[in-house]
Structures are given as structure tokens and as C-alpha cells.
Fold these 2 entries.
Entry 1:
Amino acid sequence: MALKYIEEYRDGSLARDLVKKIHSVSKKDLRLMEVCGTHTMSIFRHGIRSVLPRGVTLLSGPGCPVCVTAQKDIDAFVEFARVKNVIVTTFGDLIRVPGSSSSLGKEKADGADVRIVYSVFDAVNIARENKDKEVVFCGVGFETTIPTIAASILMGIEGKVDNFSIYSANKLTPPALAALMETDGVEIDGFMLPGHVSVITGTDAYRDTFEKYNIPAVIAGFEPIDILQAILLLIQQNEAGRPALENAYPRAVSDAGNIKAKQIMHQIFEVCNASWRGIGEIPSSGMALKKEYQKFDAAIKFGMDMPDTPEPKGCACGEILMGLKTPEECLLYKKKCTPMTPVGPCMVSSEGSCAAFYRYS
Amino acid sequence: MTEEKILLDHGSGGKASHALFSDMILPLFENSELSKQDDGAILTVDGTRLAFSTDSYVVDPIFFPGGNIGDLAINGTINDISMCGAIPQFISVGLIIEEGLPIKDFQRILEAMATAAKKAGVKIVTGDTKVVPKGKADKIFINTSGIGIIPPDVNVSGSNAKPGDKIIVSGTIADHGITVLSSREGLKFDSDIKTDSAPLNKMVQSIIQSDCDIHVLRDPTRGGLGTTLNEIAAQSNVGITIEESFLPIRGPVQGICELLGFDPLYIANEGKVIAFVPQKDAQKVLEIIQRDEFGKDAVIIGEVIEKDPGKVFLQTVIGGVRIIDMLTGEQLPRIC
């Protein structure tokens, strides 16, 4: 069975042609940043770095939701797991992320009821089936995930599921790009913008940031052809000195994005400030439940307010996320910090740049 | 710090499992047979070489498309013995049953075991049954052990890979793991995939009884092809390179992997063999495998190289290179 939209975009000869074009166009040394964990993974999985000109460096930015989750939020998840009669539901990657004192995986081994779900709707169903328990969902995601979390709240209201709540550590992408551009020392010659996020936000969501900073930016899909094409466009824009905001993923992304998803998201959530691991607070980069939906807010329901805790000493996740360091430049990398004994979330999440570097290089 | 505990990760077949074995199990049990770390131990009794292997099965759910925990447990041990180059003869069965398991389910599992043993031509000669209170086990766990005889002149081991060897895989990868996953609660995929669980003893016999040299045989179960190739690269102290475009993967399996973010290289197989064969014999061995009922899709996927010992490389479809490491982190718990 041929897989439409996979085989065409993994075509070997097409890819080799693109690589040739990239080599012929590329003159300057460039630092290009992808801001999506799936891009990071795909770049490694297809060996894309190994076919690029030496002068082109790919940096993995703050695009993996687990990696940008602040230590205090991880600590909150662990605390929920310790509350009697609470079932913590989460996407798989969070299980192994170490908080200040423990991880969800360790709490699970200690007897806590921690369940991996593939969709937030499964968490609502678990709540329906366990009326005598409280079900908390760890909300860690970008614009791609937030609308479904919002829909789960609507599902909870409709089904009168009052033992379900979420802890929102959700984040928005465009403010993070702006924050990066404002950070001293950050040198980026172009952004490969996230395909999935852009399906929801649309190209328009990046216009303000683009106009302010005038930096090459290309929305990319996830197959090797998509990524090579985006890299070629970013190089061409740089070589010609003509930055532009381009959509190289038009089969999925429109200018306006998914209007219905955005509507649901803004019906339930409102923009707030958010803490990003290693970067700190970024204004208007988070999503909190609106007042009228606060009975679904796990933080309020359980009075959970964890103190800000410093990240582990030596962990360079923040600098790596901003492209200031590569994983190899972190003192803990491959020594104290490995996928077996991760110190920071970038080593745990399959989409984290440290884990990807460790696994594939 | 909380006290160190066993985590699911320790049972993944990947890095944590290996660390558990080498740091805790091997130092206490150490002997020359165990230290070889092949799929089974090779024992010499009165001049006859025996292969002895054991495995436990905790798959969830216990019934899945193409099989159940019963035939899985029989085929698994038959294959472990076969990978030592042995002809499996006798099998033991240990059953740990949770109170409340429907008798008709138990009957189905026993029947599957009987059929699998008969098909492979092995006898189930001893066993044990225990029942534990409800909630103290999950439906049924099965342990099987087996013994096989290694014909004279046969010498296969994970430590025998040599530069220049071609690497053959006997068919499509990741079928079992993805089948079990997709039959789990909450993940119903509408597809026709089924487990590849199968006895490989006849296929293995026909290749070891040919006049071809066989260096390594291994079944890439837990941890998948990627982890198994890493084990062999480390045991034989050689490098390995494989071609992504040669990897046989069924469309629906690939599709589910893409959807859920799994890498088929790390997904369990239960009816596949990887054979390392000197180049001069590679084509012939490939054809023998292809003639077997479970080897129709067999292909050569790569070769052994002298440089970068212990490392496994994948030549990607686009002409790039990436390293294939062992599985780290539990990709899918309770798959076998």
C-alpha cells in the first residue's frame, strides 16, 4: 500500500536534486532555527544535517512542548500524582521528566495512578468511568494541542463530568519567536516555522513578528522534501538579502489557519504570561482557563501553587533552546545527563534536541 | 531522592534492560555460558551441544489479530532456541493465572499452544500451574523454557559477525508490536495487520543444513531491529550499515507508526530472523529463506563494516546518514 503524502515527500531523486540546489545556492554561513520538535526529529531521522553544506547550521529552538515546561509545572504534576484518589493523565513523554524531587514515572512505580493517554478525550472518558476519583490532565502543548484541550472542557460540561480538570502549562509559539529575537547573543538567520502549529494559527499569526524583525521565515512540513525545500528557501532569501514570510506547506496551512479551532481555543482560554524552561517568563505566551471555566482548572481545584524552583545546576536546556549552545556544549551532556538518567527535559522527550543528538549522532 | 525502584523502562529490551542485566544480574550469576548473552545458553553434555532458553510472556491484550499469548509463548522460545543454531525438541510451560480468567479463554490459549507446538514439531513435556488472587496478576502470564540440539559444525553466535557479511531480514518489520498496540483499549485502528508470530525452526534448519556459512542468527523481538543490530555490533565489535530504502515495512504498519510517532526500527517482531552471512553465500541463503512459508518477503538490508565498531548506521532515503542507537525509554510496554 502506498502512503499518500509520505512516499512522494520522501522521494530519493527529488531529495538529491534539492540537495544539489542547496549546495549551489549556499555561499554564506547561516544559522537556521527550527521551532518544532517534530522538525527536530525529522531532521535527525532522515539524516538531513549530513547532506547540507558545512556553513549551514541547524539549531533546535523552543519547539518541544515538554522541553519548555518550567520546573515548577513538572513539580505540580508530581504533586497531583501524590494526592489521594487522583488519576493523573498525561501524554507519554512527560512520564520520565525529572522534577525537583521525583518524576511521574517514579510516582507511578510508587503506586500513584498515572496513565498515558493518546488524546485528552481519553482523560475525559477515564473521569466518566471513575466517578469516585479526580482525573487531572497535564496540559502541555502548543497551538496544535490547545484546541483539543479546550474541546475536552466543552465535552466535560456537556457530559456533566465534574471530576475532570486540567493543569494548563500550554504555550503559544509567535511570542516565543519574538522573545528569542530580543535576547542578547541570539544569532538566527532564519526560522523554519512549525507545520502543525501553523495549520491552526495560519501564516497570518507570524506577520507581526516578521514585520518587526524582518527575518527570513518559512513554514515547513515534516517530510524530508518539505524540510529541504524550506531550507533552500531560507538560504535563497538570505543570499538575496530579501527576507520574506513564506508558506512552503500550503497543502496543510492557509493564511487564516483553522478558524474553528482558534474559536474554541479562545472561547475557553485567555492569553496569560508563561514561564518557559531556561528562558524565563515570556509575556502573553501562555493560555489560562477563563474565569467561567475555572472549575476545570486543576491548579485552583487543588490549590496547587508550586514555588519557582531553580533548574538543575549545569543544565543548559535554556541556552540550547535559544540556540546559544549545542547539546555537546552542555557540561552534563552524555555524562550526568543521558536518556537513561535525564537531568533536563530536552534529554527525555523524544522530540528534545539533546535526546535527538544523543540518539542520532 | 526517592528510593531506586524497578521502572517499566527496565523491561523494554533496550538500554535500561541491558544495564539491569550487566549491572545487577550478571555479576551475581556470572559464568561462561551466561556471559555470552545470546538468545539461549549453549551447553555441552557428553559431547552433544544443547541450546537452552527461557522467556516469559505478559502481553496485553492476551488475544490479538493473528494469535494470542499461548502461541506467542511457544513460538518465542522455539525461535530463541533456533537462533542458537539448534533444533528445538522439548518445551516446558509455566502458567500464572489470575483468579477469574474465563475458562473458555484459558481453553483457547491452551489450544493455541498445542497447535503451535505441533506445527513446529516440538513436545511440551513438563509444566506448572499457579493461580493468584484477582488483581495480583493480569489475566495470565506464561513462562516457557526449551531445549534444542545443535548439529555438529554449526556455530552461530551474536559475536561471529565479520566485516563484509551481508545482513538478511526474513520479512516485514514491526508487525507484532503495532498489531498488539492497535488492539489495545482506546486505540482501534481499522486495518488488516496481524502479528507475525511464527515458529522459525524449519527456516533456520534449512539454512544451517545448507552448505552455506552462517555467522549470526537473531530474532529481533523486544527493542526491535535497531536494538538487535546494536547488540550484534557490540558483541562482534564491528560496524553495521543498513539501507532505509531496503527495509521491508507494511503500509498500514508504517502509517500507524507515522501517526503515533513510533520508529518501526524499535518495534517488536515475533516471527522474523536476521541472518549475517558471508557475501559469497548471501544470495543463496536469501533464496532459501524466501522459499520458507514465513520468509517470502526476505531481503538483504545491509552489511557489516570494519570501521566504527559497535555502531549501527542507516543510509537514509534522501542520501543522508544517521546513527541507530539502542532503544532508550520504554516505547511500548507489555508487547510480548
Note: Residues 211 and 281 of chain B are 9 Å apart (CA to CA).
Entry 2:
Amino acid sequence: MITKDVIIIGGGSTGLALGYYLVNKGVDDLLILEKDYVGSGSTGRCGTGIRAQFADKPTIRMMKRAEANWKEISSELDFEFNRTGYLYLHYTESDLERYREMSELQNSFGVPTEILSPEDAKEICDLIDISEVKGASFNPEDGKAHPFDVVTSFRKYFRESEAELKENSEVTSMKLRRRKGLKLVKTPSSTYGAKVVVNAAGGWAPKLGEMINLDIPIEPYRHQAIITEPFKLGSIEPMIISMHHGDAYFTQTNRGGIIGGVGTPEDEPPSYNMTESLEFEKRVSEAFASIIPGLKHARMLRHWAGYYAMSPDGNPLLGEYRVPGHYLAAGFSGHGYMMAPSVGEGLADLIVNGQTDLPLDYYDPERVDRGELREDALQMG
Amino acid sequence: MNPGNKNSDVIICRCRDVTEEDIIEAIRDGYDTIELLKRKTKVATGTCGGRTCLPLVRAILARETGKSPDRIPLPKERSPVVPLPIRFVAGERGNSDDH
């Protein structure tokens, strides 16, 4: 058995960012186990967006910090984090009013969301059809980063650091040795032991829980996305959101394609199904073409599915769970990628120092056992 | 691959303008599977869906890593099979100039 100080299971944005902050805090004896390749789960399938426009205080704080951390990490690891903003388009007065109130809450935490007229929204992206738009909310500090850039940059970072990132290393079993506090983690090639094990396996987190007879209240819901052929950079700078068009979101990546999707029908049950559906292609096409008519002519290049790993209240499960030294960093319900850098910082603080200035208490996974559910974090993009 | 030319002259992926040299450098930096090469170099993510370049990428990977080509898996093919104008999918009748 090979012993480590900390083992992280999951080489997606969460596990990688947590590993990065642990190394920064001096934990070098660290192992990240990834069942396939970095970002092969929901990270590489995400919509690329990063936003602080949320409706509840803890998530606004987490995302404000995450954006600052994204800026720092992107400059240190040398990948693009483009603060091109999130532009929510509102097509009814009541939505506009709701988002106006939300923007005031965001402003009180230093998130500079503004309410814009339809004409001002068009200034930000002149391809939008504003004939039905009543107004918009825009936070210029929100942005995007390409998950392919992010995971390859972290991969390079771990190749050059003392910490170890092992791909093609699926965890096949786990055991708890309560007396010594060791958790044993087996892959097809080795057995590892550590006092601290973090489950950062996204939609697959419950499968790891089953190995140690823990019920982890997360369910994978399929979400699909598409990308178009590449266009001239700068065509669609912000992430554009419309709840009016079936929760549509899209933006242009730094590789030129327009990436995005629409929401999953509410009656679709959770499952590990990762196939694409024609029904989705039709809905996403209708939505994109009515928000930006010019997109009618864009050609769809690829279409794929990933998971929203949903917790019972739509908020992540972060922290120690039922067994000392057994941590969860999962159940992000669609926001794991964007939140990864502050989750990584906060959890690394908890693991190393036993405390953090970030509001991680709010995401205590045992709240579910206690029946203390939070209000749903604002879904969308 | 083409002994008369430098690696930097050989375009492997013409959609995303990736050269043989880009691929070889990435492999030497540890991006040693096709999935990782796609993410690092953009190879095979262009309009042809990798139909032109993937056999070449596989051949370079085999040569550089000493693996047999049939042990190098190709990425999953994604829908749509050919790039499809969004308005066709949205149900609008298209013009022939899209082809």
C-alpha cells in the first residue's frame, strides 16, 4: 500500500483546483485519481461560463471569490480567462423586476451587475434581436474559460509539481479503517491509503459512496450542449442567457465556436445516460435562432451530453461527510466548473487549517441528513 | 511523414491549422492520447470532424510512442454527422447554397 497525506478522487475542475490549492498550502504528498483523462467527465462537457450573478448570499460570495481566483490561476498557469460578462436577456417586466432586485443584492457584495435597456444590451452584442427584449442584466466581471485550456494547464502544473495526478486510474473499491483513520482506495494497478480522501467525482460521486456504504444524495441529470463551426473571434463576447427560450445559454469560445445549450425537460428522470437526442438539437436550434437570428446560418458541428450532478437543494455538498477525513466536493448542480477555484481554496483551508473565511458551512453535506435544505441556487448557464 | 519537408511545413489538420510539429511537441509534453491532443492542439475539432486528420494523428502517435495503431482509440464521433445549418434543425426550409 502506498500512503499519501491526501487523495482526491476525480480529475475534473473541482479535484484539480482543490489539488492546486492544497499544493499551495504545502500539501505535496497528494494524489489525484482520475478514471479516464483530465476533464473527461462533466468539466470537458460544460458551457465554459463563470458568473457571480446568483440569488443567494453564500453563492454570490463564493463566486465573487471564484472569479478573483480564476484571474489569479489563469495568469499563473497561463490560460485565458476572459471577463466578457454574462448578459441575461429579459422578455417580461416581472423577470426584469426580479433580476433588478437580485442585482441589488449582488451589488451589496461588490458584484457590479447593472440593469440595461434593450439598446444597451445590443451595444454589448449587436447580433441580438431586441424587438421583444424588455431589458437585461449584465455583470462585466463574469466571464468564461475554455475547459480544454483549463484541464491541460492543470495537467501540466501537476506534471511539474511534487503532487501526483494519475489518469486511467478508476477507483474500483474503497475501505474505511476506522481505528487508524485510514481510508484505502484501490485502482486496478495499486492500493493507496490516506487519512483524508476527497470525493470530487461529480455525477459519479454516489458510486464511490456505495463502496463504503454511504448514501450520497446526488443524482446525475443529463444536460446536452452543442458547438458550431468557428467564427471570427469577438462575434459573441458575453455569455447570453434567456430563460424565455427554454433556459438557453451560449457564448463564443476562444477557439471560435459558439457553444451552448438549453435546459433539460423537467420530466426527464436522472440517469447515467450520456447519449444525445435529436429532440434537443431541435430545441437548441430554435432557441439560438430566435435570440440571434444570424445564428440560423451557423452550422452545428458537435453535440454531446454531460451531467448536472444534482443535490436535493441544488447547492453543492462541501465538507466532511459522516466519517472523519472523508470529504465531499460534489453535487454542484450545474455550477461546479465555475465555482471550482473558490471551492478548492475553501476546502484546502478546511483540510489544512480546519477553518476558512469562505461560507462553506452553508454547503455542509450533513445539512441533508438534518433536513436543513437551502434555497435553490439560481440555475442557468 | 514527408521526408522532404520539415515537420513545421506539414499540415495535419487543415481545419484548425495544426502542423506535424505541433502534434509531436504536444506528445513530447505528455499529451499522449488523441483525446488529450485534441484538447491541447485543437486537432480534429474543426469542420471536417477529424475525418481528414485523425488517421494521420494516429499514425504520428504510433510512431512517437511505439504503440501499435490499433491500440490507439479514436475519439467518439459526435452528432451531427455533417455540419448542419441551425435553421435546418430548427425546422426552417433551407436553400441549396448551404451545401
Note: Chain A has a mean pLDDT of 96.
